[in-house]
Amino acid sequence: MIDELRDAEPRPVWWDGIRTGPQTEALRGTVRADLAIVGAGYTGLWAAIEALTEDPSRRVVILEQDWVGSGASGRNGGFVAESLTHGLAHGEAMWPDELDQLQRLGRQNVEQIAAFLDEHGIDADLRLIGKTTLARTAHEYEALRKAVANYARHGEEVRFLDRDEVRADIHSQAFLGGLRSLRGGLVDPMALTLGLRRVAEGLGAKIFEQSAATGITRDGGTLTVRSAHGTVDAAQVLLASNAYRPLLRRLRAWILPVYDYVLATAPLTAEQLDSIGWSQNQGLTDAGNQFHYFRRTRDDRILWGGYDAIYHYGNAVSPDLELRDRSHRLLARHFRETFPQLAEVPFTHRWGGVIDTTTRFTPIFGTAMRGQLAYAVGFTGLGVASTRFGAGVALDLLAGRETERTQLKAITGTAVPFPPEPLRWPAVELTRVALAREDETGRRGSLLRTLDRFGVGFNS
Ligand SMILES: Cc1cc2nc3c(=O)[nH]c(=O)nc-3n(C[C@H](O)[C@H](O)[C@H](O)COP(=O)(O)OP(=O)(O)OC[C@H]3O[C@@H](n4cnc5c(N)ncnc54)[C@H](O)[C@@H]3O)c2cc1C
């Protein structure tokens, strides 16, 4: 470990000042429920809130294997994206006929999240101030310039920034251009999780932490969710388990657990802030396939994450994988290269988290066990806002409701499965190398072009 990261706390900066760890008893004995939810991240919590808002008499139980906020929802970058299609360009390539509808639904979703936080007094530092995508190479510059017309075609206003304009905003020689969008924004992800927890429990949801669901069976119209020391007998089950080993076998082919790594700096002084500009305080991301995302926190630290997206052989998911010296070191080097004026600012936190990637970069929804179980997994690194929408889709499916969202191919169509091991790991590595090469050269090689034809890819 290099010295610079030696003193960094091995945990998300978002957990400072909050009580971490389980706050509830584990499940013991048999509990009856109308709806049992597996996973207490955003997806599970939104599902509980929406289900109880629809019908306050419903008995809703959530099983969480660890504690609420321990998963991606408590450790992400907090970028609030309207997109339900992993970005406009991907939506245009995959679902051109539905894109305007999807954009509208995604916009409404973020508006409804903002209204919900207001209504329930959740202070999650939500700031709908958009973001800037930054070009580091000449080909990224050209791609951003050309993207303006695409956005305009779909009624989205974005502004292209040339070299002088982007550097006037963000003082770094690393950037050659940018694309400023005023859509979406930033949130404190853990504060959002805790706010959702409070509302869900207030509406009557019963959460059991440290209660991993280990299996689900169906008998005489009742679904039984087993845990080490208890069971839930439920009329319906909703799987909101992200990248963790899915209880439903079919999901294993669709979900690839990918680790993403993050650093946070100490709070910047007024002079340090002055030296980097960034006065609009928006979220920033690079334009490449291997992109950094960075933002300021409430107390003016810089959170700096992304770039590496690491898949471990055999779909491994484990707390040990949340720290990776090589990825953290690389992030630290890239940070210093991007902002040499911040050479003295220490990194105070480093962490990682797991992302549920699908080949189509958007979640998979569906039902099993005669329609009594529904799943919403595969948010592929863009679930801060879209999980709310996804929870709604899963509830529609459980209710057997045909709604606008359940009619969309982009929502209920399936993804091409990932190959099983031992092919999965080499396939991901080959794709990663091809993506890195495209970042360097600006040319999409034959492997990526072939994958494009099948609407298949790898992303974090
Ligand atoms: C480092 C990082 C940065 C990210 N940055 C962004 C970003 O800036 N913007 C964005 O939009 N998205 C981002 N994401 C993605 C986003 O965080 C996720 O899409 C979102 O949090 C998914 O919510 P979830 O509820 O589906 O999953 P989680 O929050 O992971 O919740 C799932 C829960 O299920 C539990 N669980 C799993 N299996 C079981 C079981 N068998 N029994 C009981 N419990 C179980 C887990 O313990 C976990 O708590 C990022 C993700 C990571 C890891």
UniProtKB/TrEMBL annotation:
PANTHER family: FAD DEPENDENT OXIDOREDUCTASE DOMAIN-CONTAINING PROTEIN, SARCOSINE DEHYDROGENASE-RELATED. InterPro entries: FAD-dep_OxRdtase, FAD/NAD-bd_sf. It comes from Mycolicibacterium komossense. It comes from the Bacteria. SUPFAM superfamilies: FAD/NAD(P)-binding domain (SSF51905). This is FAD-dependent oxidoreductase. Gene3D superfamilies: D-Amino Acid Oxidase, subunit A, domain 2 (3.30.9.10), FAD/NAD(P)-binding domain (3.50.50.60). Pfam families: DAO. Residues 34-388 form the FAD dependent oxidoreductase domain.
